[in-house]
Amino acid sequence: TSPWPLAKGGLFDVECREASSGDGAFLTIAKGATSSISDLPKTFFTDNIFSPTGRFSFYGQPTDIKVKKSEVVDNRRYLEISFSNLSQSTNAEIPRTALVVATIPEGTGDVVMLVGSSNASRWKKGSEKSVRSTVESFRVSLAPTSGLKVRAKQTNDSLL
Fold this sequence. Notes:
- By secondary structure, this protein is of the alpha+beta class.
- The protein contains two helices and eight strands, in the order ββαββββαββ.
- It has helices spanning 42-49, 120-136, and strands at residues 15-17, 24-30, 63-73, 76-86, 93-103, 111-119, 154-155, 158-159.
């Protein structure tokens, strides 16, 4: 559950966000997990979350990325990460803290992650509680098998 409203618009996939504060959470998936969640290096997560085309890279790739804590509980990996990203309005680097929960659904090679974050000053003033509560509520289950066939549709040079 999230205290923030669902973000709407062409930019957002699955994201809840408070526009006035920037606090929020988003879902992301990384392919290529070849081992258990506990065996993946911290760089697997930071490279995927902070990639040049990632959610935090709209105005430049984040800097000062540090994994402050990493632990596995049941089949979920939790990481607390500090970083800085550029502000659109001031072009200044804004320190942020993120809490990530990740899991690999059984039978897949995908790492499904929920990333909650807040700017560092709000984190210290209490937004950590909302982010932590949201991230800890995260659960993943496989969709039931379907007999429906996927049909690709050719348009220009790509498949839809």
